[in-house]
């Protein structure tokens, strides 16, 4: 599905479930496509937010469909009145961006393999034949981050742009996040590079302050989940 079809699908969801989902635009891309997120939650007070974004890398279609699947799961759970899901929707607002980089994403539906494997945005660089920036590397970096893997060659796939937030898609995402940052309690950036789970502060060799707490919670959760599966 190209970007416009995803937007139509989201609009259908809003028509079907207006009390739980709304669709908002948070800007426009370099090629003037709408930048869109779906907000899913019950009640209209300012709840904590779970933020999920996908489609930063154009060719990673699986991340886009994962985001759409999450939206669908939440809405079907709501319609079936599944207790746990309704509880989640009362407790949190889910913000889901299926396609952060719609220009690149639509480009991957072009006629040949070179289109299909496109990863970056579609903005012009100063190098005539080299288009786009790796949006994933176009954000501000932490002080002391010397480990970032990227190339300053504009023609390379991991070119981070001439400066942080040089891409309009990045700027709009940062602006949206800034406007809700005190409410964001969970942030997931979904990719389909590999079966890996990256955690924050990965740029540093130091353990970050709540690392052990997080690992013990994760292990506890995994254990409960496995026991749950065995008993099911
Ligand atoms: Zn990726």
From TrEMBL:
InterPro entries: Peptidase_M14
Superkingdom as given in the UniProt entry: Eukaryota
Record-level GO cellular component terms: extracellular space
Every Peptidase M14 domain range: 1-232
Name assigned to this protein: Peptidase M14 domain-containing protein
Keywords: Carboxypeptidase, Hydrolase, Metal-binding, Metalloprotease, Protease, Signal, Zinc
Swiss-Prot/TrEMBL cofactor(s): Zn(2+)
Origin species: Helobdella robusta
One record GO biological process: proteolysis
Family matches, as PROSITE patterns: PEPTIDASE_M14
Organism ancestry: Eukaryota, Metazoa, Spiralia, Lophotrochozoa, Annelida
UniProt record similarity statement: Belongs to the peptidase M14 family.
Molecular function as annotated in GO: metallocarboxypeptidase activity; zinc ion binding
């Amino acid at each position: 599905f190209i970007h416009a079809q995803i937007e139509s699908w989201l609009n259908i969801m809003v028509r079907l479930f207006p009390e739980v989902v709304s669709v908002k635009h948070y800007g426009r891309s370099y090629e003037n496509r709408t930048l869109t997120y779906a907000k899913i939650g019950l009640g209209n007070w300012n709840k904590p937010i779970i933020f999920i974004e996908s489609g930063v890398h154009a060719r990673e279609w699986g991340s886009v469909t994962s985001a759409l699947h999450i939206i669908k799961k939440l809405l079907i759970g709501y319609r079936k009145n599944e207790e746990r899901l309704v509880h989640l929707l009362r407790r949190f607002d889910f913000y889901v961006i299926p396609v952060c980089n719609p220009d690149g994403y639509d480009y991957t539906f072009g006629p040949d393999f070179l289109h299909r494997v496109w990863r970056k945005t579609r903005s012009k660089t100063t190098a005539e034949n080299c288009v786009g920036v790796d949006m994933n590397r176009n954000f501000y970096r932490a002080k002391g981050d010397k480990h970032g893997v990227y190339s300053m060659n504009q023609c390379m796939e991991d070119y981070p742009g001439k400066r942080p937030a040089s891409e309009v898609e990045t700027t709009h995402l940062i602006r949206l996040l800034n406007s809700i940052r005190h409410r964001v309690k969970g942030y997931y950036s979904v990719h389909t590079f590999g079966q890996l789970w990256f955690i924050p502060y990965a740029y540093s060799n130091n353990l970050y302050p709540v690392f052990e707490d997080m690992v013990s919670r994760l292990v506890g959760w995994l254990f409960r989940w496995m026991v749950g599966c065995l008993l099911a």
